[in-house]
Design goal:
- By secondary structure, the chain is α+β, with helices and mostly antiparallel strands.
- It contains 18 helices and 24 strands.
- A hairpin with a 4-residue loop joins strand 23 and strand 24.
- Helix 10 packs across helix 17.
- The radius of gyration is 26 Å and the shape is globular.
- The two termini are about 45 Å apart.
Length: about 625
């Protein structure tokens, strides 16, 4: 059975050839992110014991095969707070060895048998790939004219997955309808897909803006429209954020569905670029999954939509307030990083931009926490207490986060991480640790004139301190609208009165200091205690000079500047912050009140939230919360 077809670059998904194939002279290598075979993960998690690579070509070729095993070195996963890409090639090492294989050739197909019985072989780690040599230079040839192929196994599937795809959307029709059209054309309306008849789509429309005509335009073939009517289910939903939208898909697809019993619910963001082949690879992996791993969630790497070769996260973990984002900034054009990307991640959870959850986890008393956005996927993944499965070739492309202009997000990050800490006694943070965390995040913004961000973060603590009863009474739609007023307004340099020369100087400085993605060192992400104290003291002195220009992607301090233009290189825009004595000292007062309550009440607040978790994650709560 085919378990991994070879993929090709395309303009509508990803046209970076080196993520699919490597050409050099007359050779074509499969040592790539999408077309190497993750033998270590397949051997560990699935029941297959045989593997054959089939290559279809009209040409006479010679074939060599390799096993490549990567290792990540110290410091590789220490860039959680870094915003500017770092060259990660110096943080990995790789060992390659050529391996003997048995090759048969009949007609236009070469069959490369890696081993008859994997359990008796040595190829249990890393990746496998082939290097094909043609009798001519392949550099100018169309890839589709050179080869086609797939990996296959003699073993029959041991599982029959049925997948519900759950999407939460809010006014992102362009992304959503493009993905829906692709899913219908390539899977739902395609009898040749291994997922044909095995996939249904459940959409929570948090903006209540989707209309039937949207799908009629997106799905042009008559057959596609017919299948869509049976396979796509749209539910207008109260805007309770991603947490509420994804919970609605859990409710409709799993808890309240008496017509079909799915084995998995695959949660997916509405603003990603999706290759439907990734879904098929997920399904085929599930079909061979060993019994002892059936509770595991399968996640996807998040790749940067603007730099499609750049991996942002491949699983993560959180320890107290410290994140680890595994294999961040891996350049997936780099052959060494492909092998290193298969190293065990020690991840504790994976994000809901693409997360395939066994439905055994989805129960009336085990639903997500109503966190609106951020940390809902973290908490649910940690609560499952099973490590996610992640492997090369399973990914989505996601737009980059806006460069720290959305102050409202900071509210959710503080409130929700404190709730997360309350859910499990093993994660409870001490008063001192929490105070230091809040101090760094709030006072650090006050000295940068980002008073709105400090307000949002302290508001997040204050609402945590008010407890779960206050949370339940708060209208999430009105709260989110109120928080939106704290967001900064991005303007062009010209609108801000900033010269092109000042922007060019900033960009030159970023490149010079290694912030363009070519450095192997992380740019500074925070100031020292001494520099913060100096900035606080600067508030006792009159400001000097005009407007300072800083990058949103690196750490900066204003010192005596009157104004700061915080420029985002990726957006080509920025926002202005201005020194205000009133806002600074008001923020200091608010921070001191929060510090007092942290030292006095954190234990009591944590206990109150902990006692409420069972109710907040129940179906009865969610039905009232969503007004179903």
């Amino acid at each position: 059975m085919k378990i991994q077809p070879l993929l090709f670059p395309s303009d509508d998904i990803c046209n970076i050839e080196s993520m699919y194939y490597r050409r050099k002279g007359n050779s074509l290598s499969l040592e790539t992110y999408f077309n190497a075979f993750s033998v270590g993960k397949w051997f560990h998690y699935t029941s297959i014991n045989t593997l054959t690579l089939c290559i279809r070509t009209q040409h006479d070729i010679s074939i060599r095969c390799f096993n490549s095993i990567g290792t990540v070195l110290d410091g590789c996963n220490s860039f959680a707070d870094v915003q500017v890409p770092v060259d990660m090639s110096s943080y990995v090492s790789v060992t390659r060895q050529e391996i003997p294989v048995r090759i048969s050739h009949e007609g236009d197909i070469y069959c490369i048998n890696f081993f008859d019985n994997l359990s008796e072989g040595d190829l249990r780690d890393g990746i496998l790939y082939a290097e094909l040599t043609f009798p001519f230079d392949v550099s100018g040839c169309e890839l589709h004219t050179l080869i086609d192929g797939w990996y296959e196994t003699d073993y029959v599937p041991v599982n029959s997955p049925d997948i519900a795809l759950g999407i939460c959307t809010y006014k992102r029709e362009e992304f959503l309808l493009r993905n829906i059209a692709s899913l219908v054309a390539n899977i739902i309306d395609n009898p040749d897909s291994p997922l044909y008849g095995k996939l249904q789509i459940y959409i929570s429309d948090n903006a209540c803006s989707l209309k039937p005509e949207h799908f009629q335009v997106a799905l042009t073939p008559v057959s596609a429209k017919m299948h869509a009517a049976d396979s796509i289910h749209v539910y207008p939903n109260k805007n309770t954020g991603g947490a509420g939208g994804f919970t609605r898909t859990m409710s409709e697809a799993i808890l309240n569905n008496t017509q079909q019993h799915f084995t998995h619910l695959l949660l997916m963001d509405d603003d990603i670029v999706l290759d439907t082949a990734v879904l098929e690879r997920t399904y085929l992996f599930l079909a061979y999954l060993k019994e002892e791993f059936k509770a595991c969630m399968i996640g996807a790497s998040m790749l940067d939509l603007n730099r499609k070769y750049l991996q942002i996260e491949k699983g993560a973990r959180i320890d107290s307030y410290a994140y680890t984002f595994y294999h961040k900034f891996f350049d997936l054009r780099n052959a060494d990083l492909i092998s290193a990307n298969e190293c065990p991640e020690n991840a504790a959870y994976t994000g809901w931009w693409y997360c395939c959850i066994p439905t055994q986890h989805i129960c009336p008393d085990n639903l997500p926490l109503p966190m609106f956005l951020h940390y809902d996927d973290v908490e649910y993944g940690l609560r499952a207490k099973v490590a996610p499965i992640l492997l090369n070739g399973i990914c989505v492309w996601h737009p980059p986060a806006v460069s720290k202009g959305a102050a409202s997000i900071e509210y959710y990050d503080i409130r929700n991480v404190l709730i997360l800490q309350s859910t499990d006694k093993e994660r409870h943070a001490s008063r001192l640790h929490t105070l230091l965390h809040i101090s760094f995040l709030s006072v650090g913004e006050l000295v940068r004139y980002r008073y709105k961000v400090s307000d949002a973060r302290l508001m997040g603590y204050e609402d945590f301190h008010r407890g779960p009863e206050h949370f339940i009474r708060t209208d999430p739609v009105k709260k989110h609208a109120l928080l939106g007023e704290l967001n900064y307004h991005f303007v062009s340099p010209e609108e801000a009165g900033i010269s092109r020369e000042d922007i060019d100087k900033l960009l030159h400085s970023l490149r010079k200091n290694g912030s363009s993605g070519n450095s192997s060192k992380a740019p500074s992400v925070g100031g020292t205690l001494g520099s913060y104290i100096l900035c606080i003291l600067c508030h006792l002195l009159p400001p000097s000079g005009g407007t300072k220009v800083c990058s949103a992607d690196t750490s900066w301090l204003p010192y005596l500047a009157r104004r700061v233009y915080v420029y985002s290189p990726s957006l080509g825009k920025g926002y202005i912050v201005t020194r205000s004595y009133k806002q600074f000292f008001s923020g200091i007062g608010r921070y001191l009140r929060a510090a007092f309550h942290i030292l006095k009440d954190l234990g009591k607040d944590t206990a109150a939230w902990n006692e409420s978790i069972s109710y907040l994650t129940s179906q009865s709560f969610w039905e009232k919360y969503l007004k179903l």
